Amino acid sequence: MKRTNKIVNLMITAMTIFIIVSVFFAIRGFSVIRKTTTASGQDFLLQSTEYVGKVIQLSMKNRHQSLNYLAIDGNLKNNDDPAAYLNSSQSALTTFFDSLNGEADSLFYIDASGTPLYAFHWDSKKKQVSIADTETIQPFINHDLSLKQLFDKPTAQNSASYFIDKKSYLNFYQEIKNTAGDIEGYLILPLHLEKFYQNFLQDFELDYKGYPMIKDQSMTVVMHPVAEQVGLDIVKDREKLYPDLNYSDLKHLEKYQLSHSSGKLTYKSYWWDEDVPTEVLKISAFEWIDVGLAHWVVAINADYNERNDDIINFVIVLSLLLVVLLLLIGIFSLFIHNFRKKERIEEENKQLIEKQKQQKLQHQLELELYQRNKMETVGLLTTSIVHDMNNFLTPIIGNTQLLLEEYSNDPVLEGDLQDILHSAQKGKQLSANVLRFSKTQQSVQEWLDVSAAIGVATHLIGEIIPKNIQLDLSIQENLGTAKFEEIDIQNLIYNLITNAYQATRENTAIQKIRVEVCATPKEIIEKIKKENLRLQAEKHFVSLTISDNGPGIPTDIREKIFEPFFTTKSADEGTGLGLFAVASIISKYEWYLDLHSELANGTTFLIILPVRPPE
Fold first, then answer.
1. Is the pTM of the predicted complex or chain greater than 0.85?
2. DSSP of 46-58
3. Are 611 and 479 in contact (CB under 8 A)?
4. Matching Pfam families, A to Z (predicted)?
5. Which residues contact 392 (CB under 8 A, 6 or more apart)?
6. Are 227 and 142 found together in one domain?
7. I need a labelling partner for 376 at 20 to 30 A (CA). Which of 63, 130, 523, 606 fits?
8. CA distance 214 to 299
């Protein structure tokens, strides 16, 4: 008895160590995945930022080039007579403004000293250019602090950005020279940066919440999807609008961007398009660019949590696994407690045996649930955890076999120990199967007769399906040989026939499953060679068809049935890995798989594999 108690305590200790190791690897794996995912997201944003910066620079050059063409084509010798210039250049001006898609509605001419001589206004609705009062364009001159640099550096493409009534603008410059080559004046085009943002950056798409924004050297927002944010200092002005928010990370972001030409970082901020901004964690990348005399930082921000949904789901699944493991230990401890109680009270033997049967059934169901949930966590931690489980199961099996020899004269205890041994051996077998799918192994493939291998596999499954299932076989012999593992073809046949059997269970008429093996028709061979370049070099093919007379597969889930863990069955009927295993085997050998299903008319799976013809 003391030896039994010692073995039980060792088993419980082993399970506890198993959970501790699982938690350790889970925490380590979560940390690695989170860092990797964040770095990947930041790299993507940095590449996107570089792309957006180049788009802005190229677009601005195109607008300046258009202004240059207008200056070349226009009759600017009549610069003292705007009516004459408008009359001679009406078509060119209309085409010019229309090509800007609402980004500009004013164009004016100043002499070499900076005095405005005349201005034009564009009515986008009427598609018409008219002469404007020079007083209307005075704000575009007064707020443009780069004009002084223009006179010192006439070759400047455009000004730095400036603001009028919390709206951002940028002036394009085009010098006008006389025949002697002296500068007579400048054409100036004020560009509405908000409209430019809408045309080129507003629809910039990410797979999650985020957007690009532009700031100048003073950290004032120049372009932003929220119009109210334009013209605001990212810290000082926002503190005035939202004094209760936390700006410590934004201050750090401001310092970092001002001291680096480009970079990526994670920080806490807010989505400013919300009525009441809530704090979120963002990942960001930025790059400084020069556009004429403007020096801007282009930044793209994205929601960290939305970007890392997969990690959050991983933590949820892992938490469920640990809960199941704890329940398993509790159930196992309860089982031992009842077993000891049964030995002490022999007069209540029958009642305890019945109670024990119920508990054993519950225990078995919990073990099955545990196994299914454990399979859902197959991923980065599967290999290490399953190897550890093998190490724990080996002494359980060995010691249980010793107990069977020691208590062979106690039929009740022997039966319980047989159950324990059987469960432990099943666990070891399950771990081997999990390792098979989750770990790259050296496969042993042989050239096997396709017809014979499928015949053997079909015979094996035919022995275990219910006798009321009508299983029709049509297998042509001597169709050729293919190189594969025989266990793979058995798994493939087993999963497809099991799937067909489960699909026909509710048939009130005869349940039929048909398995057919034959040479592939020429028209089908031509079709699959067009779809699969790898099969073009092959000449001989064999078709394996498995069909049923079930209700068929709904159209909306046909693309999902081969995904792991997807199932329409209840938790007691399947884990959603059967058809996933089929697809994995097909992919392993690069065979061809096709599905045909009609509602109320059943489902047919077609598998085509290349073969070597019989000698």
1. no
2. HHHHHHHHHHHHH
3. yes
4. HATPase_c, HisKA
5. 14, 15, 17, 18
6. no
7. 606
8. 6
